[in-house]
Design brief:
The structure is a single chain. The protein is of the alpha+beta class. It contains 5 helices and 6 strands; from the N terminus they run ααααβββββαβ. It has helices at 3-18, 29-41, 60-70, 79-85, 139-144, and strands spanning 87-88, 99-102, 111-117, 120-123, 132-135, 145-150. Strands 1-6-2-3-4-5 form a 6-stranded antiparallel sheet. It is globular, with a radius of gyration of 22 Å.
Length: 152
């Protein structure tokens, strides 16, 4: 093979590599949200305990912090801190892994859940109950929903 032909083949091969599909070094946001939901689902049925941050017992913000940490994200511990750090999203733009915030005892926002998709969220409801799914269209939750946000 002539040197000029070899150089042309080598150059063409190198340039072809530049035009290929780029590789991802980080998971897309949707993947992070799905990982958060997946972790939260492993905690379904665990008992509520005020101050519980897992892995055996949870309060609402403890479940959020636990699920995010297992998905590789550091988040604040309390509901109010989580609300302050969340980037607000409109309800129609909710994605799995987003947070939904509720005002159960005015004036403060006192409850948080993890949106799981299809109008459902996972939360640690209250004393005597267990981590479970609930629906945003349930009249109780619909009446108390005040914000939604994304921590990733």
């Amino acid at each position: 093979m002539r040197p000029a032909a070899a150089a042309l083949i080598l150059t063409t091969s190198l340039l072809a590599g530049c035009g290929g599909t780029p590789t991802r070094t980080a998971a897309p946001d949707g993947d992070i949200g799905l990982r958060v939901v997946s972790v939260a689902e492993t905690r379904l049925g665990r008992p509520y305990r005020y101050g519980g941050a897992g892995p055996r017992t949870f309060d609402c913000s403890g479940l959020v912090q636990y699920a995010h940490s297992r998905a590789g994200l550091a988040v604040p511990r309390t509901t109010e801190q989580q609300l302050r750090h969340a980037r607000r999203v409109q309800r129609r733009h909710l994605r799995p892994g987003d947070l939904v915030f509720f005002r159960l005892e005015p004036p403060k926002v006192s409850h948080v859940g993890i949106y799981a998709g299809n109008g459902r969220f996972i939360h640690a409801p209250s004393s005597g109950k267990r981590v479970s799914y609930a629906r945003l269209d349930n009249p109780y939750w619909k009446r108390h929903l005040v914000a939604a946000g994304r921590l990733y």
